[in-house]
Each structure stands twice: as C-alpha cells, then as structure tokens.
C-alpha cells in the first residue's frame, strides 16, 4: 500500500489550490506515484472527499491514471482502523454526526436552563 498525503482545497473559482500556489506539482507527483505503483493499493489522504475527488478529476483530465487509488480522510481512516476491534468487543459504531447529537442531549440534561447549539 502506498500512502499519499496532501492539503488541497478549492478556491473561489473552483480550481484546486495548495496554499497560494496551483497544485500542478502535486498532480505531477500523484501521477508519477500512480504510474509507478499501478496495481498497488494507494490512499490519497485529503481534508475532505470533495477536494480529493476534484484532484482526481483534474488528474484524469490531464491524462493521468489512478488505478487502485482511493480517497480517505483522517476520520475515515480512524473509523476503518477502529471499527473491527469495536465490533469484536460487541460495541456499535455510531453513524457520522450522531456523537454531536448525543453530546447535546447530555448537555441539555445537565443544564436545562442553558441553551446549547452544536453545529453539525
């Protein structure tokens, strides 16, 4: 398995950018890693799925191939790593967003006079 990390985001014109510079270097390096490891599983670690998909779309438009490459976030890798052990212990993995709702319910029960607003 090959791990690839990047900090990528979309600017207001929906172009992929890294900081203040275009990510053409990232696309070139990603294309090279994908070409050199064509049949090896590759994980592209991005801050969110949307920016990862945009990067791969641009790579495809540039003629790059990204066979066996999947996008992951820190949260998705943590869940993927922890979930089998939790299930083996008979625990249930909460769906995304459930934790915030449970915490809000706990806070409301502890201090019903205060107003809580957790953003999901």
Low-confidence stretches: 9-18
Biggest sheet layout: 3 strands, parallel
Structural class: alpha/beta
- What share of the residues does DSSP label as strand, in percent? 15-25%
Encode the helix/strand succession as letters: EEEEHEHEHH
What's the gyration radius in Å? Answer: 19 Å
Number of strands: 6
Mean pLDDT, to the nearest integer, reads: 78
How much helix, percentage-wise, in residues? 40-55%
Q: Strand arrangement, largest sheet? A: 1-5-6
Number of helices: 4
Write up this protein.
Strands 1-5-6 form a three-stranded parallel sheet. A three-stranded antiparallel sheet has the order 2-3-4, with helices on one face. β3 and β4 form a beta hairpin. By secondary structure, the chain is α/β, with parallel strands linked by helices. The chain is elongated, with a radius of gyration of 19 Å. It has a domain of 72 residues. The chain has four helices and six strands, in the order ββββαβαβαα.
Summed up:
The chain has helices at 24-36, 49-61, 74-88, 98-110; strands at residues 2-5, 9-10, 16-18, 21-22, 42-45, 69-72.
């Amino acid at each position: 398995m090959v791990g690839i990390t990047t900090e990528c985001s979309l600017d207001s014109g929906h172009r992929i950018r890294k900081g203040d510079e275009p990510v053409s270097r990232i696309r070139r390096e990603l294309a090279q890693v994908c070409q050199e490891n064509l049949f090896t599983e590759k994980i592209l670690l991005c801050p969110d799925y949307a920016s990862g998909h945009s990067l791969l779309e641009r790579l495809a438009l540039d003629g790059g191939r990204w066979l066996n490459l999947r996008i992951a976030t820190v949260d998705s890798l943590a869940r993927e790593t922890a979930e089998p052990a939790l299930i083996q212990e008979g625990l249930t993995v909460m769906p995304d967003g459930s934790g915030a709702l449970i915490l809000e319910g706990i806070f409301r029960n502890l201090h019903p006079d205060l107003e809580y607003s957790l953003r999901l």
